[in-house]
Amino acid sequence: MQEKDLIYEIKGSIAWITINRTAQRNAISEQAIELFLNALEQAKKDDQVRVVCITGSGDTAFCSGADLGASMGKNAESDQSVFQKYADLLFTLSTFPKPTVAKINGYCLAGGTGFMLASDIVIARNDTKFGTPEVNVGLFPMMIGALIFRNVPRKKAMEMILLGNKLSAEQALEMGMLTRIVPYEQLDEHVDQVLNQLSEKSPIGMKIGKQAFIDAEQKPLKEAIDFLSRKLVDVASTEDAVEGITAFLEKRPPAFKGK
Q: What angle is formed at CA 106 by the lines to CA 194 and CA 12, rounded to 5 degrees?
């Protein structure tokens, strides 16, 4: 699938979702949000897809946030519709059953921060800039706040949100927003390595595991531990788990089938 604002393509067992608005620094449009949701739904249903990688076109920006040149602020009803779609996208990405990787190839600001924080693994160039500059134009990073506070200590988060300053990749890594930073010329290599590793894991094991962690996050400690013990039984009962243990004992790579 290739549309004006977003590109969706399958490469082997990896689904690539690319925000395709280079001239607008990959600012997210309403059409791009809808296409993003559609792409995730396709990747979810496609048994060939084992991992999803999200990035932006070009080498200047991953995503610079919402398209402020659109009609934002002129119609409250229209705004609410777009904001809800973006909220739906953040939730869908945050709870996606397959591993997700954000490849940060340039500026990652405002709403782009939401996509990054909603992903499981975030690999960024060491020259990229991050932040939530909404306050500088009279707005506030509302929906992504739910994800910021799940990744960043409160005081650091509030400083970023209230000052609206851009952060270096090193600062973002220190705050817990990123998984790793790599030199400009090594981004492709590192991302491909991680994607290939993920694609070799058990799809069913990761699906059960990811959902279990999402469900356990809101439970009290004892309840969460007991719940996860039951989910381990579910994982151990899969054909992939039997194959994985057998392969380990036989000193060979496992052949996972997602069952």
A: 35
C-alpha 3, offset from chain centre:
21
pLDDT, tens digit (0-9, with 9 covering 90-100), for 205-246: 999 999 999 999 999 999 999 999 999 999 999 999 999 999
Whether pTM exceeds 0.90: yes
Q: If we measure between CA atoms, which residue out of 57, 185, 80, 74 comes closest to residue 125? A: 185
Strand runs labelled E in the chain: 6-11, 14-19, 51-56, 61-63, 100-104, 107-109, 121-125, 129-131, 167-168, 180-182
Are the CB atoms for 35 and 19 separated by under 8 Å? no
Nearest to 62 by CA among 106, 12, 92: 106
| Residue pointed to by tokens 């059953």 | 97
3-state secondary structure of 214: helix
Rounded to whole angstroms, how far apart are CA atoms 28 and 64? 8
Which residue, among 27, 23, 106, has the nearest Cα to 60 in the 3D structure? 106
Question: Which amino acid appears at position 68 of this protein?
Answer: L
Contacts of 196 (CB under 8 A, 6+ apart): none
Distances (CA, A) of 101 to 16, 88, 119, 207, 221: 10, 19, 6, 15, 28
Distance separating alpha carbons of residues 29 and 6, to the nearest angstrom: 10
